[in-house]
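Write out the 3D structure for:
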Amino acid sequence: MGQSDIAAPSIAGTSQRNPGGGKWHRWQRTIALGVVVLGLVGIVLAALAREALLPRSALTVAVPSNPFAPARPALTQAEEAYARGLWKIHDDVKLGAVRMTFAGLAYKAGEIGRTTLKARVDAARDVYARAEIRARALEPPPSLRRVHADYLAAIRLYRQSAVEMAKLAADGREQHLLAAYPLSETASKKLLEVGDVLWPGEYVPN
């Protein structure tokens, strides 16, 4: 039997034995993309909720989760100055992440088209670009250089994620959402790790 005989649809062919196979695969992709978008929403909202509940006038020493663990030392004057400077940038980065995440969610829900998606993603990418310039202008003390590098890495990951989502707006291939997800997820985790160092427990710079 030749290749054409195998590929040709017939009553006894593979297409007849597996009706609706293509439709099932489309449903699988849709479910996977939905999980991706909801996962991003969960990460971003968890970070926002945690920070929204932090009192602005709290002490600079975090309350340890383990009551027998030694208290984390307070930030030095140089460290606190850096933390306050980065906080102003951090607000913009979080806002950009929220907007980009919900742009993907709105697109999957059919509320916006590719043109609107691209406009929203481009706006978030501009936020990240400006934030990176401002963050690079900060001078971290030696004790926070690793934290500073991690924060810059997070911004770059968000920018790369935005690039992937912009590709979806260009060609309509939803695989770009799957490619964007791990980039944004890693960036969000890095932001949480930086926050645990600079703004732990009750402490949030005013």
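Residues 16-66+75-198 form one domain.
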